[in-house]
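FIELD: query
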Amino acid sequence: RRLRPPHSMQRQLVAAGVAVTGVAAALALRRLVVARRAAALLNKLQLKTPVPPDVEISQAVKLTPIKELFDRKFGLREGELFAHGTYKGKLSLSVYERLKHQPDGNYVVVCGINPTPLGEGKSTTTIGLSQALGAHLGQQVMTCIRQPSMGPTFGIKGGAAGGGYAQCAPMEEFNLHMTGDIHAITAANNLFAAAIDTRYLHEQTASTNFLWNKLCPADGSGRRTFELSMRPRLDKLGIFKAAPDDLTASEIERFVRLDIDPDSITWKRVTDTNDRYLRGVSVGTSPSEVNKKTGESLGRESGFAITVASEIMAVLALATDLSDLRARLGRMIACTSCAGEPLTADDFGITGALTVLMMDALMPTTMQTLEGTPALVHCGPFANIAHGNSSVVADRLALKLVGPQGYVLTEAGFGSDMGGEKFFNIKCLYSKLRPSCAVLVCTVRALKLHSNEAPPVVPGAALAAEYREERLGLVAKGAANMLAHIQNVRKHGVQVVVAINRFHTDTDAEVETVARVAREGGAFDAVAADHFAKGGAGAVELGRAVMAACAATSPREFRHVYDAKAQGVKDKIETIVREVYGGAGAKYSPAAEARIARYEADPALRSLPICMSKTQYSLSDDPKALGAPSGFTVTVKDAYVSAGAGFIVVSLGTISFIPGLPVKPAYYKIDVDLSSGSPRVVGLS
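FIELD: result
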């Protein structure tokens, strides 16, 4: 049927509508073209020779807004990523619940050989490999790395964002405050420290009745109630009464008096600064911290640790969810009673408060590499005094997000004898995750040092000629250290790809020698990588080798080197010495013997895994024993339980829990450049 022509007014509106629609479409198309051109410029490297300072490289790269990056890569839902500024955020643990039935991706751990004091670029290699897999080989990848402490950033070592054209970015935000996780740990740790000393003060200066009336005061009707935070201590004491007024005088005495032995307090205050003058301090020296009846000072000798050495850091790294975090925090032992009973955070009624302080810190921080591959940055326990790995939460989330064909790279601190061994026997024990492959990072420089025929490598000093010139004999002899690390990993049933982090002074013949010896010594493959100078393009062959190793093996082949539940404490220690370090056994100081005997008598403690605390520079407990020493006996000087983290720390030497500063710390070079209009950080490395 013929339609009637529209009214003249209608004709004008229709014509106007067409015109508007056409303009809108043109504008939309233009915006799309502009957006695509802008996206094409994001995360693009402009390689320069020589390689500029790290911070200049990071600032020159146009990054993708973090929410846009993670949404595009993983299809996140609303409320699953909370932005902290433009380029970092927090990933909700609800993502795991949504994807928990999806198969995991390939799980790749990156560790190293025993390093020189300069480090061998393990973080740089991890990030370079990520850029190769994601930006050049088209793979779904996530990089899980540790958050650096600001102590070393301003001290000798510098930051830990990688280096050159293989960095996590923005590197200033990565190396400094990030999203505040370390500050949260500092606050929680020091709240607990204050609670311990304050409780001791009150118990020394107040009557039982006074303490009872303060802890469980009567309300206007004369009724008392227990706080929920008090229930764990009541349960521990076997007091299952709901009403405080039902307690007997004896039960009240046991409940309100922890009877702290001040000499047993091991919980230290922490700071995220290298400050040697805090290694030993006197606390409670004010006139107000005295027993007013006797005039006796209630002060004591103590000390600080660096924040990342706090047990709360290890607890955060090993927790699987918020409930597990709370339970682990509650189990942390701070001291003992005068009768020798361990006193935990639950005894002090502080577990809930610590959990509240740590809630946001349980969510990993989302960042990116220079070439736009996603990263989760979470936790930063040192590998020489703790277990030295990023968090279980980050790894579990990443394995679900990348999907069964994707790759998760997780970094373990120092060598396979340190963070690597603890990854296999502590982290994997609690996470129940099984690695698909291990990448072992080495350098020609480190192998020359391990020959025992090259001069020492000294931070800040020029490298000797042996390290700058071709010395095939030194490389071949020092490769014994690399071979020992290959065998360490293979003993856990995991394939090894050796990543030769290439420096400009390395010759082709030296690199080929390392690769040949590694393959002959049991490595799945050995590949040179030049990611520092070339970004992901310099690690493409390494990426292909890792993909091949993951495809050729099954995670079902993975095994722990000892049985944590079945073996005794000494048996586990000596298994690590023999199977991982290559030694003959261990001898024990009287203090260590006494502590271990107590742990052996407690079934809950006897079944914990072992966290060895030793030098990172040698397979043995002697930092000067380079190469692959054998037949040695380590000396166990002390042992203590990190009950919240869930391991027994075994000390093989004197390890400082708070570093000092050198004569010329890194902070001399760090500043803000105001000359370009907007403030710009300079000198950070």
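FIELD: remark
The radius of gyration is 29 Å.
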